[in-house]
Amino acid sequence: MIDTQRLSTAHRLIKPFIHRTPVLTSTSVNHLTGNTIFFKCENFQRTGSFKFRGACNAVAACAEQLQNRGVITHSSGNHAQALALAAKLHDIPVFVVMPQTAARVKQKAAESYGATVVLCQPTYISRQETVARLQQESGAVFISSADNEDIIAGQGTAAIELIDEVGSLDLILTPVGGGGLLAGTALAASDLLPHVKVIGCEPEQVDDAYHSFNSGTRITEVRGNTIAEGLMPPLGVHPFAIIRKFVDDIVLVTEREILHAMHYIWERMKIIIEPSSAVAVAPLLNRRLKISGKRIGVILSGGNVDLDRFFAMLTCSL
Amino acid sequence: MIDTQRLSTAHRLIKPFIHRTPVLTSTSVNHLTGNTIFFKCENFQRTGSFKFRGACNAVAACAEQLQNRGVITHSSGNHAQALALAAKLHDIPVFVVMPQTAARVKQKAAESYGATVVLCQPTYISRQETVARLQQESGAVFISSADNEDIIAGQGTAAIELIDEVGSLDLILTPVGGGGLLAGTALAASDLLPHVKVIGCEPEQVDDAYHSFNSGTRITEVRGNTIAEGLMPPLGVHPFAIIRKFVDDIVLVTEREILHAMHYIWERMKIIIEPSSAVAVAPLLNRRLKISGKRIGVILSGGNVDLDRFFAMLTCSL
Known about the structure:
2 copies of one chain form a homodimer. By secondary structure, chain A is α/β, with parallel strands linked by helices. The N and C termini of chain A lie far apart (57 Å). Chain A has helices spanning 5-14, 27-33, 51-61, 63-66, 78-89, 104-112, 124-138, 149-155, 157-166, 180-192, 208-215, 237-246, 255-269, 275-278, 282-285, 308-316, and strands spanning 23-24, 36-41, 71-74, 94-99, 116-120, 141-142, 171-175, 197-203, 249-253, 295-300. Chain A has 2 domains: 4-46 and 152-309, Rossmann fold; 52-142, Rossmann fold, CATH 3.40.50.1100. In chain A, 47% of the residues lie in helices and 15% in strands. A 6-stranded mixed β-sheet of chain A has the order 1-2-10-7-8-9, with helices on both faces. In chain A, strands 5-4-3-6 form a 4-stranded parallel β-sheet, with helices on both faces. In chain A, helix 1 crosses helix 8. In chain A, strand 4, helix 6 (104-112) and strand 5 (116-120) form a beta-alpha-beta unit. Chain A binds chain B through residues 22, 24, 27, 43-44, 46, 48, 227, 255-256, 259, 262-263, 266-267, 269-273, 303, 307, 309-311, 313-315, 317-318, and chain B through 22, 24, 27, 43-44, 46, 48, 227, 255-256, 259, 262-263, 266-267, 269-273, 303, 307, 309-311, 313-315, 317-318.
């Protein structure tokens, strides 16, 4: 289990690289939900998501030893971009393995931060083989998107900043996919606000964390699909152990609730959040939590949304 | 001509009601343009635009005398919502005249802030007649969206806050339509930073301010259409006088440049700005201003965009 001391070490290490993201509030949201809600805006984080915190910590923690070897991961999402920028800032080579089927825009995003993108077949075996081959050739160290103690410690720094800024809270909500953010947040909260409840929020369609948490046995395979792509990976081993110990509950939300929450936040707060972020807002809007008069922190995990179709539509209307 | 003293009075008067909006910066935008740009985020203002500042000042300035009479305006845009909320907060009745052709969502928005919306034919004459009739019946005072000294003084408070927060600037950019924001900003700047340049930005398609400014004769009729709906009204009499004296230049941008700037800001800054705001960003992205190494303030005027089609598209994909 990670010592909470590692979170403050991580924070010190990554501070020169990360944005201290703002905490926003919304009169409309407070009025609608009957609570006071503090949104930690990791959608404004570098590379557009909290993933940069963990990636930066994982790279910074062993930058010297990695110098000539580099890092490698498989991801077509936010972790790929985050690791690419973190490595670039530390002058370390970075390889990202993506399935051929990944949107071209995701490949370009990772490349724009300096990654060498290597495509593989869209199968588990091809992915493992490709990573293994590249590791053998380059000596690059594999950095998982969530199942890594340095990653978890880095993700916990968002909650450290949130609590530092707003003080006491009754409840903190985060989305849960691989579990790095939820585990890091729970660790930070257990240290700084021992009485706060921490709840993970998960799409009903990919409810492995919910069942793992409630049964005590980690589910390793995820079936189903969700608009909150970032939450598709199964819960990692390290996050699972922390979540079982420090998290109070995991709640589920439907795809429609995710889209509704995303729409509401865009419209009222004028900020762009991705579906994964909306997963942690939905339980407040659908009132399934049945709480009022509380001080609640919500980690808005990211803001990477493909806007091309929307702007193509607007351009057509010119 | 308005005394700049009136801007600080306005600021004192409206402070209890307005949000002090954040000033954001973006590494990407700075890198791309070669300048340091400070975005004053009036898209986060109450009712979603800077218009609330002026409306609030106009109502607050004569709240007692308006108590039983109320206020009236014609607008289907941001001024309607702004005046509605300003009046509601001062417990004053408010009438908004809109053409029948205005989107139902705009009518609902004004009503949601407590306005009595009265529809008229989509002609200039019907609008004037409807306003006159309602004024006669209720005694309501007409509050123009830009051609009113209290409105101008209120709009200038955004620049006061911007300068207070970031200090010296070389240049301030705002969009220009009716001219309230540009005039108020120029007044504030002339008082606080005598050496700063102030430039208005206008869509090429509705270039009345540009020609009025350059010829010295105010054009009173606007032809043409723009995606930046908020900038359709012609330059008002009061704003024109101030702009002629205190503004350094007016630059034009195309519809495509507006959409490109809007897309870029959404994607990189993860904030929602409306096309009118993007008009003041476009001259920096298209490099038509040919400046670098400068400290530039940009007033992002609002964030009211109809997102329903985009979310309908996403819902269909579920």
